[in-house]
Amino acid sequence: MSLGEPNRVAGSSDNSDSLSVVAIIVSWNSGEWLIPCVQALSEQSHSNLTIAIWDNASSGPTLAVLDQISDSYPMTRIFRSDANLGFAGGNNRAAEKYPDTNFILTVNPDALLDHDSVRFLVRAAATDEHCGAIGVTQMSPDGLYFDGIGDCYNPSGIAWRGMHGQPARALGSAPRKIISPCAAIALYRTSAFAACGGFDEDFFCYMEDVDLGFRLQLAGWHCLHVPDAKAIHFGASATGSGSDFSAYHGHRNMIWVFCKNMPGVLFWLFLPLHLVANLASIAVLVARGKPGIAYRAKIDALRGLPAMLGKRRAIQRRRKVSILTILQKLTFKLQAGQLFR
Fold first, then answer.
1. pLDDT class for 297, splitting at 50, 70, 90?
2. Distance between CA 225 and CA 22 in Å, rounded?
3. Residue range 311-321: mean pLDDT, rounded
4. Are 141 and 110 in contact (CB under 8 A)?
């Protein structure tokens, strides 16, 4: 598989090849998506790579696929959960199995990494000790469009994948700073991941990556996008694009991300924008025939707010960067077509 011909990595003179990576695939009824995902990981040029699947109590055909992977890819370790812990909990539990690895690579089952992607990611992390997380260039299945080049976060609390759906073009090779990588394919420094508590399991899924990226920023880490690290991302293979499930979690979690992480005076400055964004999101869901989802998402967000404000106090006490630094990480121009997906 090839996603273009960017600066292919030859024998590296640095020691990044010796750094250990565990690639974690969280599966929930992911079925046949798993085999090509594992195959792409098994072909990575980075040699010190372990593959782990955390299965969230799948049923049906996925069980046979997991057995097939055990036979065909014996280097892949499979953990079977008795309950669905979500994307957040599944990654956290799997990461706990590998406390000594240098890096954690989260990989959605519907993502296919190009041959050198992990090596590009690790090499970038090895040369920047303050980098806590790195994202790839996510491409559409036909390779003609960007699926995302890192998350963007507006002061209103609206988040989206940068350049999602835009025609593919050359991006250069230099890493660039972002607020958060999309965790569909993201490399996390284990020490940073652990220090910040990993993914917030109350989120279950959706926007848990933006939340973690924001917390990393507040703790003094930064996040990068490495253009040459590429992957195909099919998107929403388990939960369905535009499903009630994704709408509920996305619209609930947008409130929690803002209330947990927006620091100091920025919280009060941007709170009116956040309230307007929530009203707009409700209107969008109602227009899509999902008034019940809108009601439940916002009510449940408010019910969970005391716990989130408790987390906020702990997060903000540990903040190591200035308000201005965070302000510079925000994206003020909204990307058309990406609101409330």
1. very high
2. 19
3. 98
4. no
- Distance between the two ends of the chain, CA-based, in angstroms? 29
Residue 341's identity, in one-letter code, is R
Q: What is the pTM of this model?
A: 0.93
Residue 7, burial from CB neighbour count under 10 angstroms (0-12, 13-18, 19+): exposed
Is residue 101 within 8 A of residue 21, CB to CB? The reply is: yes
CA 266 to chain centre: 24
74 — alpha (psi -120 to 50), left (phi > 0) or beta? alpha
| CATH class held by domain 16-233 | alpha beta
Closest of 78, 65, 77, 11 to residue 35, by C-alpha: 65
Q: pLDDT over 90 for what percent of the chain?
A: 89
